[in-house]
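Please check what follows.
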Amino acid sequence: MSLTSIILSTGSYLPSKILTNADLEKMVDTTDEWITQRSGIKHRHIAGENETTGDMALHAARKALENAKLDPQDIDGIIVATTTPDRTFPSVAVKVQGDLGVKPGLAFDVQAVCTGFVYALTVADNFIKMGQAKNILVIGAEKMSSLLDWTDRTTCVLFADGAGAVILQAKETDDTLSNKLDGQGIHSTHLYANGSKRELLQTTGGVSTTGGNGVIEMQGREVFKYAVSYMADVVAETLAYNGITSADIDWLVPHQANIRIIESTAKKLNMSMDQVVVTLDHHGNTSAASIPLALDEAVQGGKIKRGQMLLIEAMGGGLTWGAALVRY
């Protein structure tokens, strides 16, 4: 008898402050039309001055627990994907563990920028399949506004803040199924990085270099080119690995970075945009939080239903990229 990881519940949190494109027009040399055409973003949420990544992660975790009807003591581990931790150490995960009152167990952060949630999901899935945990909180949380140069119109209009969470739960596989893909759970994950391209999307500082966080700098055209290519490759690999076609996918749940990248991926899959979860227009790019935020919105809104097949994919700084095939 083997184990699989099912997504038991989702949860999310967005800060109350909303920053519109019209607001940004007053801050930098930009227009609503310019931002919308190049990214697809109309407005985004920005954390309060004293609101941390850990605070947002905690809100999303509580919502996921509530939706799962679980108690914090039912959680065996916490993995947080983030690029913007509250402190250099300890991790955001241990803050969430302590503030929730979760019993001692595994708790750590994963840093793969915008692909972080897919990385964290993969790590949690492996813990569960090895029988080392039953319920794991997987959270993507970011305060990207703390890494922005608010005078740089190429980056400050794109990024935003928020947190999303899922609870992965161990479940015995159903050996009576003739097709294992009919069963609920995470069927495969595929992770990559290409460090030779790291300078295309990075920050200008860090703890062991400048002693500060630095701000985001991005070579947009190059990042776009690699995103389209890498997304096509990892999506094709995921389908081939599982012996399916895009016709078997009910929903594409992509990282919310740029509407043109999302549209390109959907086109290569021959999928209608009606089958793509898009929250970019009102969430902006929340890095590791974007996929769980989009997933929760689609689940709570009744779009994604139990039994449907999801293709999750992302690319971020590193460059990192990855995908997961999940029967919800």
